[in-house]
Amino acid sequence: MLVSLLAFLITECGQNRAGETGRARDIETIPATDTVKSVQEIGNAPGDTGSEPEAEEETIVKAVFDFERRTVMLISGYEMPLNGLGTYSFHGDESIDSVKSALSNGVRLIDTASAYGNEKEIGQAIREAINEGIVQWEDIFVTTKIYPGNEMEYPARSIQACLDRLDIGYVDLMLLHHPDPNDVEAYKAMEQFVEEGKIRSIGLSNWYVEELTEFLPQVDTVPAVVQNEIPPYYQENDIIPFIQDLGIVVQGWYPLGGRGHTGELLGDSVISEIAGAHGVSSAQVILRWNLQKGVVVIPGSSNPDHIRENTELYHFSLTEGEMARIGALDRGEKHDWY
Ligand SMILES: NC(=O)c1ccc[n+]([C@@H]2O[C@H](COP(=O)([O-])OP(=O)(O)OC[C@H]3O[C@@H](n4cnc5c(N)ncnc54)[C@H](OP(=O)(O)O)[C@@H]3O)[C@@H](O)[C@H]2O)c1
Questions:
Q1: 20 to 30 A from 328, CA-CA: which of 111, 136, 149, 182?
Q2: What is the spatial distance between Cα 204 and Cα 251, in angstroms, rounded to a whole number?
Q3: Beta bridge partners of 204
Q4: Does CATH place domain 65-327 in 3.20.20.100?
């Protein structure tokens, strides 16, 4: 019997990200991310004549969270932090102050999008934080997204526009924000930017089982990340394992229910009781619950106290019983249309 081994060729993450302080990250010295999967024959089992070729078996390597390093290794070969800052709804100085506050508090993953209209400010905040010695280039992980419609119709132009607005050398992760009639072509354009070293990892946002099943056979690169809505009232319990079993990391947006809905969720009696038992806040319980499900969290906040609190997720853990109690809160209640 043929035994096949799927080995992910992982490029080392230590290429030159730094440049000099105050200088954008140098794209020329960064090799393209190698997302190639290699299936290797490692031998014949006893009794196998070797004459009959058999179908190759693929072993998908599921991403594992490293709670010590607070990172996960993506299928693209790059490490991504487990908790970040969402920047949806931030504009102007609020974007700059929130990102710098997050970086000062040890947050290293910043999530933005072309549609948020704040990429310029996010890039400015990052450059200022570097100049002020708050953070090093090599520690920052920036995600952005291109939007359906006009942006995905002309994807190369839109991707370059994101890079230009951010002006931080390259982007760590770029996502297609939603499915679109031109999404396969847009994804291929992102693959081209990976080849050129201008993007490190690529992925999808608001893709579910049906969409992934249709989309994945049409592209060469396995998405590193799928970012979907995952608060306790909308848990996607059938979708998350489907995505994770493909070796893709799941990231949750609206972890706290989204603006206008956080009050009810944070005040939920089950979550409040669990928070009390651990001496933490409801927000910390929800974020920790996500992490223990293998879901990366990107809560949005412009409040420095909340930003700091949302990083303090590693000194306690939820029991199986507590995980199950939060699991039982699912009521399929989505807080956005996509
Ligand atoms: N891919 C997509 O389609 C998509 C869609 C939506 C969002 N996203 C991403 O997901 C991120 C998160 O979503 P979101 O920011 O809209 O919603 P969220 O993270 O669920 O909730 C943000 C709200 O929670 C409050 N909050 C944050 N931390 C708190 C804490 N420790 N205690 C009490 N309240 C707290 C914030 O208020 P304060 O500012 O007062 O702390 C804000 O009102 C976005 O910023 C964006 O990056 C992606």
A1: 111
A2: 10
A3: 176, 226
A4: yes
